[in-house]
Amino acid sequence: MKKIFAFALMFLCFLPSFVANRALAETTGLSYIVTANTANVYQSANLTSEVLYSVSHKDEVEIEKDSDFPKSYTGDGYTFYKIITTGKEGYILSDLVIRKNTSIQEIPNFNGRTNGKCSVYEKTETGYSKTSITLEKHQQIYLYEGYKSKKEYTAISFVYENEVVYGYIKTDYVDPNGINPIIITSICLVVAILGVAFTFVFIKGKKKKMS
């Protein structure tokens, strides 16, 4: 009986700590990694607010979450995430961080390649900055935001030094699904020329019949 009483007493002593730890685990944020060389952390969700401090490439921060997704804030047309890391609270541009342990940790399902030697860029608060990484021609890439030929830069991931790396390259160097956009343009141009030629022949034949 004494043993049961002692066990119950110990359980009651450890219960508050257990509940607190469980609550803490449930309220922690999502782990994100900084992808830019440097990124400012602001006091509020807008670029005109006070800059509290800066974080560097590959720094890890905890982001406020809404269910299993990051909670986003909009200001001045930009989207921000709230950093809830103890002692480092603030707001950071969502484009400058990426979720740790994201689904693209293994070799991605490549859906494109480069059509020439090109530099890799990273997105900054003011535009795009060239990194020290250079991709060779026919480097396999994954277009995780899709492909739009009119965009100047395209978001990609690729394998570099046995790691999956994220970045941007100029869209002119992207061949989606292994198809060179120049070939597509050439085909469209040929079709357009043939269309004009057939139209000219049709008009010429019609004039002959009328005469």
Largest sheet: 3 strands, antiparallel
Oligomer: single chain
Radius of gyration: 28 Å
Helix content: 25-40%
SS-derived structural category: alpha+beta
Could you give the distance between the termini? 120 Å
Task: Give the overall shape, derived from the CA principal axes.
Answer: elongated
Low-pLDDT segments: 14-27, 180-184
Strand order of the largest sheet: 4-1-10
On the 0 to 100 scale, the average pLDDT is: 77
Using DSSP, what is the number of strands?
A: 17
> What is the count of helical runs?
2
What is the strand content?
Answer: 35-45%
Order of SSEs? HEEEEEEEEEEEEEEEEEH
Topology record:
Blueprint (H helix, E strand, L loop, with lengths): L1 H26 L2 E5 L3 E5 L8 E6 L3 E4 L1 E2 L2 E2 L1 E4 L2 E6 L6 E4 L3 E3 L12 E3 L3 E6 L4 E8 L4 E2 L11 E8 L2 E8 L3 E3 L4 H30 L1
Describe this structure in words.
It contains two helices and 17 strands. It has helices spanning about 1-25, 180-210; strands spanning about 30-35, 40, 50-55, 60-65, 65, 70, 70-75, 80-85, 90-95, 95-100, 110-115, 120-125, 130-135, 140, 155-160, 165-170, 175. The strands form seven sheets. Strands 4-1-10 form a three-stranded antiparallel sheet, with no helix packed on it. Strands 7-8-9 form a three-stranded antiparallel sheet, with no helix packed on it. The protein is elongated, with a radius of gyration of 28 Å. The N and C termini lie far apart (about 120 Å).
